[in-house]
Amino acid sequence: MPLDAAVKVVGGSASLPLARALARELGVGAVDVSFERHPGGFPDGERYVRLLGPVAGEHVVLVQSTHPDPAIVEFLLLADAVRDLGARRITAVIPYFGYGRQDKRFLDGEAVSARTLAKHIALNADEILTMAVHNPDLLGTFPVPAREVSGMPALARYIQGADVDLVLAPDANAVRHAKEVAGIAGKPYDHLDKERLDSYTVRVKPKALDVRGRSVAIVDDVISTGGTIATAAKELRAQGARRVVALCVHGLFVGNAEEKLRACNEVVATDTVPSAHTKVSVAPEFAAAIRALA
Ligand code: R5P
Predict the structure, then answer these.
(1) What is the pTM of this model?
(2) Domain count, the chain
(3) Are residues 61 and 17 in the same domain?
């Protein structure tokens, strides 16, 4: 469907740079949002949103990652306000969908958090676009149409023509990502196998790689504590790699991730979660998906 004039982008505070880039990419307007009623916000830290332009009759593209947790509340407030103010259609763009890893009941009595989030995110949305979800099965749990947009082309753009000889998946889960990045960038790829000992500790299974004197880009969907990438980077160094670049779609960098990532020469993340390592935008990928909406 060609985009009609009545498309407006609304960005939550967790995703403002990407929302602005997306509006530019689509060539449509953005509706500004005020996030503070009083300077400094509510004293108790509750979120506040106020749309500063009309959305009645519009197709609203609402952009907000669900990280950190207050961003979830803000998304719910925005979606409800946009609907209540008369939007004709709401496309929820959730660049980073948090809670995706708790996608089943691992222990008796646990909440299936990914499903809980999916249900509530969909309350006022006509469709969902998200990116690099932990498990693509999540898409089937949304009560409205949901699609995963790949962020890998953005990472591939970054390494195309750059000093990278090999693309490496740090574990079996990331092979589909490494394969896609390598295919687009025109580089070979390989993978390691990882064992997770607990939320903070991982181990790489022994495997000889052809990396001596080469520059390697490790690709993952998300860097959280940095344990996965740091372990892979150390293995590459031990096997004689000359340079190690870490590429991820979602850069969370929790705890002492920055310290661990010193094992890499460079760390590159997209703008799904803004950080000091955000070097590429996935706006072109989301724009193409929005243009292709039925
Ligand atoms: C795991 O399956 C994911 O693809 C990532 O490898 C993992 O979540 C990264 O987490 P961390 O940075 O804490 O090792």
Answers:
(1) 0.94
(2) 2
(3) yes
Q: Which of 104, 119, 187, 194 is catalytic?
A: 194
Q: What stretch of H or E contains 269?
A: strand 266-270
* Residue owning the nearest CA to atom 3 of ligand 1: 222
Q: Is 224 in the pocket of ligand 1 (CB under 6 A)?
A: yes
| Cβ pair 182, 188 in contact under 8 A | yes
14, part of any domain: yes
Are residue 164 and residue 275 in the same domain, yes or no?
yes
Q: pLDDT means per 10 residues in the chain (294 residues)?
A: 76 98 97 86 83 97 97 98 98 97 95 96 97 93 96 97 96 94 97 85 86 98 95 96 98 97 97 98 98 90
Burial of 24 (0-12, 13-18, 19+ CB in 10 A): middle
Q: Is 194 a catalytic residue?
A: yes
pLDDT at residue 197, as a whole number: 84
